[in-house]
Design brief:
Layout lengths: L1 E8 L6 H13 L3 E8 L1 H10 L5 H8 L36 H6 L3 E8 L5 E5 L3 H12 L8 E3 L2 E5 L8 H6 L5 E4 L13 H10 L4 H26 L3 E4 L14 H27 L1
Parallel strand pairs: 1-2, 1-7, 2-3, 7-8
Antiparallel strand pairs: 3-4, 3-6, 5-6
Helix pairs in contact: 1-2, 1-9, 3-9, 7-8
Length: 284
Amino acid sequence: MLYNAALVLEGGAFRGQYTAGVVDTFLAHHIEFKSVIGVSAGSLCGVNFVSKQYGRAANININHRHDHNYISLTRAFKKQIINLDYLFEDHGYSWQNFDETAYRRSASHFTAVATSVQSGKTVLFTDPTGKDLTDALKASSSMPFLSDPQMTSQGPCLDGGITDSIPFDIAQQQGYDKIVIVRTRDVNYRKKLSSPAVKRLYHLVYKDHPAFAEAGINRPLVYNQQIAQISHLVHEGKVFNIAPTEPVKIKRIEGNVKKIRALYETGRQEGEAIIPDLIKYLEK
């Protein structure tokens, strides 16, 4: 069923396998949303959800994790440890190509969130297609320090989580009264404020883009403010919050496939457990 509601998906690199499990559970129950908003890994999960490709994100990160054409530390000097182009290429029999035809046909609107390197502000890509779609997804998922800025229709961009880690505000701006958030951190998690070393690194690496550097430095503060706002909205019944019940102990670029698979299964199980309450919220 298509609900007049927004689904907001947090990023977090391989923590996104939790999200992949949750949204696959939604697909299994035929739950769809009028708007799907994703940032970083959340954008990659979101686009697969909109195209209704059950299990695609899990298949990629479980069965192809150790393909050096996808992820390789030897490419660190090129700032391309994760080759995001890999996600949109054909890799043979076991590979599930992205179904852009299904994506275009979907009744859901899709928004990928990124951060402009030039302005240090959030930029949105709503219902992009073709090259604009792949550019937007790559930009949204390109981590600072580890990736070069991705050129998009809105200029060079990086990880949307720099300015808007959990973009429920975008759902509010779109006019939705029902907002479902899938997070990749437990509800007690808070970010530590940027250390002097991190501040120096931002200023050094992004010396030509001071607004972006400041946004990166202030990310923990903004994130913690978002968590406080979400907690308040959940208490008022305005937002439905889904988060791991236990701290997620997985690296951003995790190499242990068993951990990746286990996190996906956790997302499926915890997603299944909240389905009755989720439907009550959506239909209230």
